[in-house]
Amino acid sequence: MRYPKRMKKLFSREEDRITHLPTEIKEKILTYLPVKDAVKTCLLSSKWRYTWTSIPELDLTDEDFSKKINRSEDLIQFTNFGDCFLSAHSGSIHKIKISCRSNISTPLERWLTILSRKKGIQEFDLRLTDPKRSYLPESFYEFHALNRLNLHGCIIILREKIEGFKFLNRLKIKNCIIPETNIQELVSHCPNLKYFSFKHYIDISSLKIFSPNLEQLGIQCVFKNLQLETPNLKRFKISNPSSSEGLKNCSVNNALASLKGIKELGIDCDYLQCMADSLNSMRNYVFEHLRKLAIFIYFKSQKTVFDFRLLQNAPHLQILHIWLRYSSKPDGTVLELDSTKEILLKNLSTIVIHGSVESESVLSFLQFILIKSPVLKTVLLLKNDPLILQKLIQSEKVSKNAKLVVKKVRCSSSCSSFNPDFEYPSSNY
Protein backbone atom coordinates (compact mmCIF):
# COMPACT_ATOMS: atom_id res chain seq x y z
CA MET A 1 0.00 0.00 0.00
CA ARG A 2 1.27 3.44 -0.94
CA TYR A 3 0.87 6.35 1.48
CA PRO A 4 0.62 10.01 0.50
CA LYS A 5 3.71 12.11 1.24
CA ARG A 6 1.92 13.86 4.13
CA MET A 7 1.27 10.52 5.84
CA LYS A 8 4.92 9.49 5.40
CA LYS A 9 6.05 12.70 7.08
CA LEU A 10 3.67 12.11 9.98
CA PHE A 11 4.99 8.58 10.46
CA SER A 12 8.61 9.75 10.36
CA ARG A 13 7.88 12.48 12.94
CA GLU A 14 6.28 9.90 15.26
CA GLU A 15 9.32 7.64 14.94
CA ASP A 16 11.70 10.52 15.66
CA ARG A 17 10.00 11.65 18.84
CA ILE A 18 12.07 9.25 20.93
CA THR A 19 15.21 9.61 18.85
CA HIS A 20 15.27 13.38 19.25
CA LEU A 21 14.61 13.47 22.99
CA PRO A 22 17.12 15.49 25.02
CA THR A 23 20.14 13.45 26.12
CA GLU A 24 19.35 13.68 29.83
CA ILE A 25 15.84 12.25 29.25
CA LYS A 26 17.20 9.36 27.19
CA GLU A 27 19.72 8.64 29.94
CA LYS A 28 16.93 8.67 32.51
CA ILE A 29 14.92 6.19 30.41
CA LEU A 30 17.89 3.81 30.33
CA THR A 31 18.21 3.83 34.13
CA TYR A 32 14.90 1.92 34.29
CA LEU A 33 16.31 -0.90 32.15
CA PRO A 34 18.69 -3.67 33.23
CA VAL A 35 22.19 -2.50 32.30
CA LYS A 36 22.54 -5.38 29.85
CA ASP A 37 19.45 -4.18 27.95
CA ALA A 38 20.48 -0.53 28.19
CA VAL A 39 23.62 -1.35 26.18
CA LYS A 40 21.50 -2.99 23.46
CA THR A 41 19.79 0.35 22.74
CA CYS A 42 22.92 1.31 20.78
CA LEU A 43 21.31 -0.61 17.90
CA LEU A 44 18.26 1.66 17.75
CA SER A 45 19.87 4.46 15.76
CA SER A 46 23.06 6.49 15.50
CA LYS A 47 21.73 8.98 18.06
CA TRP A 48 21.22 6.21 20.62
CA ARG A 49 24.56 4.55 19.89
CA TYR A 50 26.52 6.06 22.79
CA THR A 51 23.73 7.11 25.15
CA TRP A 52 24.37 4.12 27.45
CA THR A 53 27.95 5.30 28.03
CA SER A 54 26.76 8.29 30.06
CA ILE A 55 23.82 6.99 32.11
CA PRO A 56 24.15 8.38 35.69
CA GLU A 57 22.70 5.37 37.56
CA LEU A 58 24.10 1.84 37.25
CA ASP A 59 22.76 -1.46 38.57
CA LEU A 60 25.21 -4.31 37.96
CA THR A 61 23.75 -7.63 39.07
CA ASP A 62 24.79 -11.19 38.24
CA GLU A 63 21.11 -12.18 38.08
CA ASP A 64 20.94 -10.56 34.63
CA PHE A 65 23.44 -13.20 33.47
CA SER A 66 21.96 -16.21 35.25
CA LYS A 67 21.09 -19.03 32.84
CA LYS A 68 20.90 -21.67 35.62
CA ILE A 69 23.13 -24.00 33.58
CA ASN A 70 26.70 -23.26 34.56
CA ARG A 71 27.15 -20.76 37.36
CA SER A 72 30.90 -20.34 36.78
CA GLU A 73 30.31 -19.41 33.11
CA ASP A 74 27.56 -16.99 34.17
CA LEU A 75 30.02 -15.34 36.56
CA ILE A 76 32.66 -14.99 33.83
CA GLN A 77 30.09 -13.33 31.54
CA PHE A 78 29.02 -11.00 34.35
CA THR A 79 32.56 -9.90 35.27
CA ASN A 80 33.59 -9.49 31.62
CA PHE A 81 30.53 -7.36 30.97
CA GLY A 82 31.31 -5.25 34.05
CA ASP A 83 34.88 -4.69 32.85
CA CYS A 84 33.79 -3.62 29.37
CA PHE A 85 30.88 -1.50 30.53
CA LEU A 86 32.79 0.50 33.16
CA SER A 87 35.79 0.96 30.87
CA ALA A 88 33.54 2.40 28.12
CA HIS A 89 31.42 4.57 30.42
CA SER A 90 32.43 8.17 29.86
CA GLY A 91 29.87 10.21 31.83
CA SER A 92 29.44 11.00 35.48
CA ILE A 93 27.82 8.49 37.84
CA HIS A 94 25.66 9.54 40.79
CA LYS A 95 24.34 6.18 41.94
CA ILE A 96 25.69 2.64 41.60
CA LYS A 97 24.55 -0.75 42.85
CA ILE A 98 26.60 -3.95 42.56
CA SER A 99 25.10 -7.28 43.63
CA CYS A 100 26.53 -10.76 43.21
CA ARG A 101 26.10 -14.23 44.71
CA SER A 102 29.74 -15.24 44.18
CA ASN A 103 33.14 -14.06 45.34
CA ILE A 104 34.24 -11.17 43.12
CA SER A 105 37.21 -9.75 45.05
CA THR A 106 39.44 -9.34 41.97
CA PRO A 107 36.90 -7.81 39.52
CA LEU A 108 35.47 -5.68 42.33
CA GLU A 109 38.90 -4.15 42.87
CA ARG A 110 39.14 -3.32 39.13
CA TRP A 111 35.64 -1.83 39.05
CA LEU A 112 36.07 0.36 42.12
CA THR A 113 39.43 1.59 40.81
CA ILE A 114 37.67 2.81 37.65
CA LEU A 115 34.77 4.27 39.65
CA SER A 116 37.10 6.07 42.07
CA ARG A 117 38.19 8.33 39.18
CA LYS A 118 34.60 9.57 38.85
CA LYS A 119 34.23 12.25 41.51
CA GLY A 120 30.44 12.60 41.71
CA ILE A 121 29.25 9.24 43.10
CA GLN A 122 26.67 10.00 45.80
CA GLU A 123 25.09 6.58 46.44
CA PHE A 124 26.88 3.23 46.57
CA ASP A 125 25.12 -0.07 47.27
CA LEU A 126 27.20 -3.28 47.48
CA ARG A 127 25.31 -6.54 48.11
CA LEU A 128 27.32 -9.77 48.18
CA THR A 129 25.84 -13.04 49.41
CA ASP A 130 28.66 -15.56 48.86
CA PRO A 131 29.86 -17.15 52.16
CA LYS A 132 33.43 -16.53 51.00
CA ARG A 133 33.19 -12.80 51.38
CA SER A 134 34.95 -10.37 49.06
CA TYR A 135 37.28 -7.69 50.40
CA LEU A 136 36.24 -4.08 50.05
CA PRO A 137 39.07 -2.56 47.97
CA GLU A 138 41.05 0.45 49.25
CA SER A 139 39.99 2.46 46.20
CA PHE A 140 36.53 2.61 47.77
CA TYR A 141 37.79 5.22 50.25
CA GLU A 142 38.22 7.66 47.36
CA PHE A 143 34.42 8.00 47.05
CA HIS A 144 34.48 11.27 49.00
CA ALA A 145 31.15 12.61 47.64
CA LEU A 146 29.02 9.76 49.04
CA ASN A 147 25.88 10.64 50.96
CA ARG A 148 24.36 7.11 51.04
CA LEU A 149 26.29 3.88 51.60
CA ASN A 150 25.03 0.29 51.90
CA LEU A 151 27.55 -2.53 52.46
CA HIS A 152 26.29 -6.12 52.65
CA GLY A 153 28.36 -9.30 52.92
CA CYS A 154 31.90 -8.01 52.43
CA ILE A 155 35.12 -7.76 54.48
CA ILE A 156 35.86 -4.23 55.67
CA ILE A 157 39.39 -3.46 56.82
CA LEU A 158 40.05 0.27 57.13
CA ARG A 159 43.43 1.50 55.99
CA GLU A 160 45.60 3.32 58.52
CA LYS A 161 44.67 6.82 57.43
CA ILE A 162 41.30 7.57 55.86
CA GLU A 163 40.02 10.97 54.88
CA GLY A 164 36.48 9.85 55.68
CA PHE A 165 33.14 10.69 54.11
CA LYS A 166 32.21 14.18 55.19
CA PHE A 167 28.99 14.25 53.09
CA LEU A 168 27.72 10.81 54.16
CA ASN A 169 24.41 10.98 56.03
CA ARG A 170 23.09 7.40 55.67
CA LEU A 171 25.12 4.23 56.38
CA LYS A 172 24.00 0.58 56.44
CA ILE A 173 26.33 -2.32 57.26
CA LYS A 174 24.86 -5.82 57.16
CA ASN A 175 26.51 -9.21 57.59
CA CYS A 176 30.01 -7.85 57.02
CA ILE A 177 33.26 -8.89 58.69
CA ILE A 178 34.68 -5.77 60.32
CA PRO A 179 36.94 -5.34 63.38
CA GLU A 180 35.32 -3.68 66.41
CA THR A 181 37.68 -0.70 66.33
CA ASN A 182 36.96 -0.16 62.63
CA ILE A 183 33.24 0.29 63.33
CA GLN A 184 33.98 3.16 65.71
CA GLU A 185 36.58 4.66 63.37
CA LEU A 186 34.38 4.50 60.26
CA VAL A 187 31.42 6.16 62.00
CA SER A 188 33.61 8.84 63.58
CA HIS A 189 34.96 9.76 60.13
CA CYS A 190 31.43 10.56 58.94
CA PRO A 191 30.78 13.90 60.71
CA ASN A 192 27.36 14.49 59.08
CA LEU A 193 25.98 10.99 59.58
CA LYS A 194 22.25 11.04 60.43
CA TYR A 195 21.28 7.36 60.00
CA PHE A 196 23.26 4.22 60.88
CA SER A 197 21.95 0.64 60.63
CA PHE A 198 24.24 -2.17 61.80
CA LYS A 199 23.43 -5.88 61.56
CA HIS A 200 26.15 -8.30 62.69
CA TYR A 201 25.97 -12.05 63.36
CA ILE A 202 29.30 -12.34 65.18
CA ASP A 203 29.40 -11.47 68.89
CA ILE A 204 31.16 -8.22 69.75
CA SER A 205 32.95 -7.48 73.00
CA SER A 206 32.46 -3.70 72.99
CA LEU A 207 30.45 -1.70 70.46
CA LYS A 208 31.34 1.99 70.50
CA ILE A 209 29.53 4.58 68.40
CA PHE A 210 30.54 8.23 68.65
CA SER A 211 28.60 10.46 66.27
CA PRO A 212 27.53 14.00 67.25
CA ASN A 213 24.85 14.43 64.54
CA LEU A 214 23.40 10.90 64.46
CA GLU A 215 19.59 10.91 64.70
CA GLN A 216 18.63 7.31 63.87
CA LEU A 217 20.48 4.20 65.04
CA GLY A 218 19.52 0.56 64.45
CA ILE A 219 21.58 -2.28 65.98
CA GLN A 220 21.05 -6.00 65.52
CA CYS A 221 23.95 -7.84 67.12
CA VAL A 222 25.14 -9.37 70.40
CA PHE A 223 27.63 -7.43 72.53
CA LYS A 224 28.85 -7.32 76.11
CA ASN A 225 29.08 -3.56 76.33
CA LEU A 226 27.44 -0.76 74.34
CA GLN A 227 28.91 2.72 74.51
CA LEU A 228 27.13 5.61 72.80
CA GLU A 229 28.00 9.26 72.44
CA THR A 230 25.13 10.40 70.25
CA PRO A 231 23.64 13.56 71.81
CA ASN A 232 21.15 14.16 68.94
CA LEU A 233 19.74 10.62 68.76
CA LYS A 234 15.95 10.59 68.18
CA ARG A 235 15.18 7.03 67.04
CA PHE A 236 16.86 3.88 68.39
CA LYS A 237 16.19 0.24 67.54
CA ILE A 238 18.01 -2.74 69.07
CA SER A 239 17.51 -6.51 68.88
CA ASN A 240 19.25 -9.86 69.21
CA PRO A 241 19.84 -11.53 65.80
CA SER A 242 19.91 -15.01 67.35
CA SER A 243 16.58 -16.82 67.21
CA SER A 244 17.60 -19.39 69.82
CA GLU A 245 20.06 -17.92 72.31
CA GLY A 246 19.53 -15.16 74.84
CA LEU A 247 21.98 -12.51 76.04
CA LYS A 248 24.67 -13.12 78.65
CA ASN A 249 26.55 -10.43 80.59
CA CYS A 250 25.19 -7.60 78.46
CA SER A 251 25.45 -3.98 79.62
CA VAL A 252 24.01 -0.76 78.20
CA ASN A 253 25.03 1.43 81.15
CA ASN A 254 27.33 3.49 78.92
CA ALA A 255 24.55 4.08 76.40
CA LEU A 256 21.72 5.37 78.59
CA ALA A 257 23.00 8.96 78.72
CA SER A 258 22.62 9.21 74.93
CA LEU A 259 19.11 7.71 74.99
CA LYS A 260 17.47 10.35 77.17
CA GLY A 261 16.35 12.42 74.18
CA ILE A 262 14.97 9.63 71.97
CA LYS A 263 11.40 9.91 70.67
CA GLU A 264 11.09 6.39 69.23
CA LEU A 265 12.49 3.13 70.61
CA GLY A 266 12.33 -0.38 69.17
CA ILE A 267 13.54 -3.23 71.39
CA ASP A 268 13.16 -6.99 71.80
CA CYS A 269 12.61 -8.86 75.06
CA ASP A 270 16.29 -9.82 75.42
CA TYR A 271 17.52 -6.24 75.36
CA LEU A 272 14.44 -5.08 77.26
CA GLN A 273 15.64 -7.16 80.22
CA CYS A 274 19.21 -5.89 79.73
CA MET A 275 18.05 -2.26 79.71
CA ALA A 276 15.80 -2.81 82.73
CA ASP A 277 18.78 -4.13 84.70
CA SER A 278 20.78 -1.04 83.76
CA LEU A 279 17.90 1.24 84.81
CA ASN A 280 18.00 -0.34 88.27
CA SER A 281 21.48 1.09 88.81
CA MET A 282 20.44 4.63 87.76
CA ARG A 283 18.00 6.46 89.99
CA ASN A 284 15.53 8.99 88.57
CA TYR A 285 16.35 8.08 84.95
CA VAL A 286 13.44 9.05 82.70
CA PHE A 287 12.82 8.75 78.96
CA GLU A 288 11.30 12.21 78.97
CA HIS A 289 10.78 12.50 75.20
CA LEU A 290 9.83 8.91 74.35
CA ARG A 291 6.50 8.88 72.47
CA LYS A 292 6.60 5.68 70.42
CA LEU A 293 7.75 2.26 71.63
CA ALA A 294 7.95 -0.97 69.59
CA ILE A 295 8.55 -4.21 71.50
CA PHE A 296 9.32 -7.53 69.80
CA ILE A 297 8.29 -10.52 71.94
CA TYR A 298 9.80 -13.67 70.50
CA PHE A 299 8.86 -16.85 72.37
CA LYS A 300 12.11 -18.80 72.01
CA SER A 301 11.23 -21.16 74.86
CA GLN A 302 8.19 -22.10 76.91
CA LYS A 303 8.73 -19.14 79.24
CA THR A 304 9.47 -15.53 78.25
CA VAL A 305 9.83 -12.69 80.74
CA PHE A 306 8.46 -9.23 79.99
CA ASP A 307 9.95 -6.56 82.25
CA PHE A 308 7.83 -3.41 82.69
CA ARG A 309 10.55 -1.22 84.18
CA LEU A 310 11.21 0.56 80.89
CA LEU A 311 7.54 1.48 80.57
CA GLN A 312 7.62 2.86 84.11
CA ASN A 313 10.39 5.22 83.02
CA ALA A 314 8.53 6.52 79.94
CA PRO A 315 5.78 8.77 81.40
CA HIS A 316 4.81 10.42 78.08
CA LEU A 317 4.51 7.25 75.96
CA GLN A 318 1.65 7.57 73.45
CA ILE A 319 1.99 4.72 70.93
CA LEU A 320 2.92 1.10 71.68
CA HIS A 321 3.67 -1.46 68.93
CA ILE A 322 3.86 -5.11 70.03
CA TRP A 323 5.28 -7.84 67.76
CA LEU A 324 4.38 -11.45 68.64
CA ARG A 325 6.27 -14.41 67.21
CA TYR A 326 6.48 -18.05 68.32
CA SER A 327 9.23 -20.64 67.84
CA SER A 328 7.19 -23.45 69.41
CA LYS A 329 3.51 -24.27 69.82
CA PRO A 330 1.75 -21.10 71.03
CA ASP A 331 -0.46 -23.05 73.44
CA GLY A 332 2.55 -24.02 75.54
CA THR A 333 4.14 -20.56 75.78
CA VAL A 334 4.03 -18.48 78.93
CA LEU A 335 4.62 -14.73 79.13
CA GLU A 336 5.66 -13.81 82.67
CA LEU A 337 5.15 -10.19 83.70
CA ASP A 338 7.79 -8.59 85.92
CA SER A 339 7.94 -5.24 87.79
CA THR A 340 4.24 -4.42 87.39
CA LYS A 341 3.48 -2.86 90.80
CA GLU A 342 3.56 0.86 89.99
CA ILE A 343 2.72 0.74 86.30
CA LEU A 344 0.39 3.42 84.93
CA LEU A 345 0.50 4.25 81.24
CA LYS A 346 -1.24 7.56 81.72
CA ASN A 347 -0.59 8.98 78.22
CA LEU A 348 -0.85 5.81 76.13
CA SER A 349 -3.48 6.38 73.41
CA THR A 350 -2.72 3.68 70.78
CA ILE A 351 -1.71 0.02 70.87
CA VAL A 352 -0.87 -1.87 67.65
CA ILE A 353 -0.63 -5.68 67.82
CA HIS A 354 1.45 -7.43 65.12
CA GLY A 355 1.00 -11.20 64.92
CA SER A 356 -1.36 -13.70 66.50
CA VAL A 357 -2.50 -13.64 70.12
CA GLU A 358 -2.38 -17.41 70.48
CA SER A 359 -1.82 -18.06 74.19
CA GLU A 360 -3.71 -17.19 77.36
CA SER A 361 -0.65 -15.54 78.91
CA VAL A 362 -0.32 -13.13 75.95
CA LEU A 363 -4.02 -12.35 76.21
CA SER A 364 -3.56 -11.64 79.93
CA PHE A 365 -0.66 -9.34 79.07
CA LEU A 366 -2.86 -7.29 76.72
CA GLN A 367 -5.69 -7.21 79.24
CA PHE A 368 -3.25 -5.91 81.86
CA ILE A 369 -2.22 -3.04 79.56
CA LEU A 370 -5.89 -2.17 78.97
CA ILE A 371 -6.39 -1.83 82.71
CA LYS A 372 -3.30 0.39 83.08
CA SER A 373 -4.09 2.82 80.20
CA PRO A 374 -6.68 5.43 81.32
CA VAL A 375 -6.67 7.53 78.10
CA LEU A 376 -6.44 4.67 75.60
CA LYS A 377 -8.35 5.36 72.36
CA THR A 378 -7.41 2.59 69.90
CA VAL A 379 -6.29 -1.04 70.05
CA LEU A 380 -5.39 -2.06 66.50
CA LEU A 381 -5.17 -5.78 65.67
CA LEU A 382 -3.39 -6.47 62.39
CA LYS A 383 -4.60 -10.07 62.30
CA ASN A 384 -8.28 -10.95 62.55
CA ASP A 385 -9.01 -13.48 65.27
CA PRO A 386 -12.74 -13.36 66.25
CA LEU A 387 -12.27 -15.31 69.51
CA ILE A 388 -9.43 -13.10 70.79
CA LEU A 389 -11.29 -10.00 69.64
CA GLN A 390 -14.35 -11.04 71.61
CA LYS A 391 -12.29 -11.66 74.77
CA LEU A 392 -10.60 -8.28 74.49
CA ILE A 393 -13.94 -6.55 73.99
CA GLN A 394 -15.21 -8.17 77.17
CA SER A 395 -12.05 -7.28 79.10
CA GLU A 396 -12.03 -4.63 81.81
CA LYS A 397 -10.86 -1.23 80.53
CA VAL A 398 -10.10 1.94 82.45
CA SER A 399 -10.63 4.14 79.38
CA LYS A 400 -14.25 4.48 78.31
CA ASN A 401 -13.17 5.68 74.84
CA ALA A 402 -11.04 2.64 73.97
CA LYS A 403 -12.03 1.01 70.66
CA LEU A 404 -10.79 -2.28 69.20
CA VAL A 405 -10.11 -2.17 65.46
CA VAL A 406 -9.14 -5.02 63.13
CA LYS A 407 -7.22 -3.91 60.09
CA LYS A 408 -5.45 -6.01 57.47
CA VAL A 409 -2.21 -4.55 56.18
CA ARG A 410 0.01 -5.60 53.36
CA CYS A 411 2.58 -7.90 54.90
CA SER A 412 6.27 -7.03 54.47
CA SER A 413 9.49 -8.24 56.01
CA SER A 414 8.83 -5.94 58.94
CA CYS A 415 5.58 -7.81 59.74
CA SER A 416 7.37 -11.03 60.65
CA SER A 417 10.80 -9.83 61.75
CA PHE A 418 12.28 -7.06 63.80
CA ASN A 419 15.13 -5.72 61.70
CA PRO A 420 17.38 -2.77 62.55
CA ASP A 421 15.81 -0.54 59.89
CA PHE A 422 13.01 1.85 60.80
CA GLU A 423 10.28 0.15 58.82
CA TYR A 424 6.77 -0.49 60.07
CA PRO A 425 3.74 -1.92 58.27
CA SER A 426 1.53 0.83 56.88
CA SER A 427 -0.93 0.96 59.77
CA ASN A 428 -0.89 4.78 59.93
CA TYR A 429 0.58 4.67 63.45
How confident overall, as mean pLDDT?
Answer: 82
Which percent band covers the strand fraction?
15-25%
For the CA atoms, what is the radius of gyration? 27 Å
Helix content estimate: 25-40%
DSSP E strands, number: 20
* Structural class category: alpha/beta
By DSSP (H or I, 4+ residues per run), the number of helices equals 11
Descriptive keywords:
429 residues, alpha/beta, elongated
List the helices and strands and how they pair.
Layout: H1 5-19, H2 23-30, H3 35-40, E1 57-61, H4 71-88, E2 95-100, H5 105-115, E3 123-128, E4 134-135, E5 148-152, E6 154-155, E7 170-174, H6 180-188, E8 195-199, E9 204-210, E10 216-220, E11 223-229, E12 235-239, E13 264-268, H7 269-280, E14 292-299, E15 303-307, H8 309-312, E16 319-326, E17 334-338, E18 350-354, H9 360-371, E19 378-381, H10 386-394, E20 403-406, H11 413-416
Parallel strand pairs: 1-2, 2-3, 3-5, 4-6, 5-7, 7-8, 8-10, 9-11, 10-12, 12-13, 13-14, 14-16, 15-17, 16-18, 18-19, 19-20
Helix pairs in contact: 4-5
